[in-house]
Amino acid sequence: MRETNPVRYDETRGCWDVFQYDDVQTVLTDFETFSSEFGSGLGGMSKDSAVDLTDTMIKRNPPEHERLRGVVDEYFQPGYLRKFRDDFEELARDQLDTVLAAGTEFDFAAEFAAPIPASVIGEILGVPRDKREVLIGVRPGGEHTQEELKAYITELVQRRKENPRDDILSEVIHATPDGREMTPEEIYNFCALLLLAGSHTTITLLTNALWMFTKHDLIADIQAGVIDLDTAIEEVLRYQPSVHTVERIASTDVEVNGTTIPEGDQIAAWVASANRDPQQFDDPETFDPERSPNPHMTFGRGIHVCLGAPLARLEARTVLPVFFDRVSDVSFATDERDPIVGPTLYGLQTLPISVQT
Ligand code: HEM
């Protein structure tokens, strides 16, 4: 499609698809022409989600987007997040202990990776460890509902109002970017957005990383420092991105690469395709753990560029070494793969492995 039909209308989905790197970049950066205000920017995720994203930054254009993101931006910078590193390591170690206590054959995705991202979000929000079940369980088919999450967050906000602590929730509650505090509804929406945008995507990143590193026999080299883990993670993000498309709506008639998209039409910008565009990447179909530079578009671009990208990177760079330090000889328990099916999210639902300790 990238070569033969780079901008096309899909009748079945009622949506335009944009496949080339430069066009995807244009759609994501020109926020005036390509609006986020229509449903969700990560639409495929919210449609079947337990959490409603109607009033969050991901679905807002400026100036509302600036206000909502402005409150929290500084707490998602690498410098601020670094202080959580030891906590993330401890979380990963505890999770690995639990998994290995039951045996050396397990599903990396469901048994090891799945609870970690929601628990990490609990860590940065200041949710006590024994109270994170609700955060982890709010997902399609999960054991907790949006109402339970809302009741829990509302109570937590009240407690932090009375007793601020050194966590992002306390900072957000007391921040007044335009002279007024965030409303309880806005604070709840923000927490729900973090869980929705930050849980599944990062489970998938951890799982895709183990999948790729095992498949390409890289774990020993990563442990020995022969292959740089940070660089290899960027290549996982490029080659197997957790998010395949980002959605927008045309706010005016607009020409993209010679094709006119009418005002009001929906557009899917295929970051997964941009990530393999030979105009941008040499040998794009090859997984190269030493690829550098690697200007992939997995975290989006422009004003909506992923707020949680530094958190997802820190998580992968912290959790995977804990795993590699404890286990050796990782092998796949099956050659069958069961990818998540849908236009937005991509990754494996399960990754059964066996390891030696
Ligand atoms: C936005 C991908 C992890 C929070 C985005 C966007 C993408 C993306 C493509 C842009 C959406 C758009 O332009 O409409 C990913 C991937 C992740 C990841 C691939 C993991 C590998 C996280 C984490 C968090 C998070 C861990 C927070 C805990 C957000 C938020 C936005 C966002 C709040 C909206 C930003 C805005 O509208 O200004 N993400 N994300 N993401 N992401 Fe992530």
From TrEMBL:
* Keyword Iron applies: yes
Protein family: Belongs to the cytochrome P450 family.
- InterPro entries, sorted: Cyt_P450 (IPR001128), Cyt_P450_B (IPR002397), Cyt_P450_CS (IPR017972), Cyt_P450_sf (IPR036396)
Q: Which organism does this sequence originate in?
A: Natrialba taiwanensis DSM 12281
Keywords of the record, alphabetical order, are: Heme, Iron, Metal-binding, Monooxygenase, Oxidoreductase
The protein's name is Cytochrome P450
GO MF assignments: heme binding; iron ion binding; monooxygenase activity; oxidoreductase activity, acting on paired donors, with incorporation or reduction of molecular oxygen
Family annotation (Pfam families): p450
Is the keyword Cell membrane assigned to this protein? no
Superkingdom of origin organism: Archaea
